[in-house]
Amino acid sequence: MKVEDVKKICVMGAGLMGNGIVQVCAQAGFEVAMRDIENRFVKNGLNNIKKNLSRGVEKGKMTQEQMDDILSRIHGTTDLKEAVKDADVVIEAIIENRDLKRKVFAELDEICKPECVFASNTSSISITDMAAATKRSEKFIGMHFFNPVPVMRLVEIIKGYETSEETYQFIDELSKKLGKETVLVNEAPGFAVNRLLLPFLLEAIFALQEGVTTVEDMDKAITLGLNHPMGPFTLLDFVGMDTALFIADYMYGEFQDSKYRAPILLRKMVRAGHFGRKTGIGFYDYSKKPPEPRSF
Ligand SMILES: NC(=O)c1ccc[n+]([C@@H]2O[C@H](COP(=O)([O-])OP(=O)(O)OC[C@H]3O[C@@H](n4cnc5c(N)ncnc54)[C@H](O)[C@@H]3O)[C@@H](O)[C@H]2O)c1
Questions:
Q1: I need a surface site. Which of 85, 123, 267, 290 has the fewest CB within 10 A?
Q2: Domain segments of the chain: what residues?
Q3: Average pLDDT, rounded, for the chain
């Protein structure tokens, strides 16, 4: 498969990452189907894309006509068969759950055309393991975008055990067509970025639990002391506590190393539904304008 032959991309999941991936694909000129399990998620995803593009129009980065053109290439649906019909590539961005992803890929394998390439946006789960749920492991690859997708420039490309060189070259070229820079990572839990990021984020929560400092001061310390664009708690609220916990538990299981052990506070926040920005409450309270750091 050559990138110039790609007509349609199907993105599975209309959440935080899914709708961002849909936006960059449509902006690059591809027809995109965005599939989620419920209408309200599809609608949310579409609204987010519209909001993002409107901001671009307001700032003079694109015209209203260009925005309408991009939106006309996006088709939101809950119908799986309709979403994957004639798709040349499927990019999966559903929740970070190994069993669910394997189940979804096995189903996709039955209904997608044989030449269709499968890419997973997983943050940590083994590409080889997911590929083994299909009969196309040579056409299966990791395509790890970063949040927010339209802004962040990197795609980590992860080769599974049986991913072909042709599939890698194709996804590398496709990522560049989407305006991204790429790095190649050989499969390992957490790939390159999350291998370093997760211990950093988890340690910030341990420090908070121990009363070392506050949410606000830790974020200030890291922003000003390390020149990071945002502190760990602001970043965790963007990533989502549910996703962070899935990744931590998965990496802990794979490495059996306490570097990846999830603090109890993270687990409690997930149980309480305090996922961060997407639920309105995390380390900051987003019902307040501007958002206020919470006490722990
Ligand atoms: N949040 C981040 O910063 C980030 C960064 C890089 C990669 N990722 C990865 O991207 C993936 C998605 O994360 P997210 O933050 O967008 O999560 P999210 O919870 O915002 O979105 C996930 C969406 O998938 C949908 N979904 C569940 N089952 C589905 C199915 N069978 N078919 C279609 N849609 C289904 C859910 O309804 C939800 O809308 C995860 O694998 C995550 O690890 C996340």
A1: 290
A2: 3-186, 194-283
A3: 97
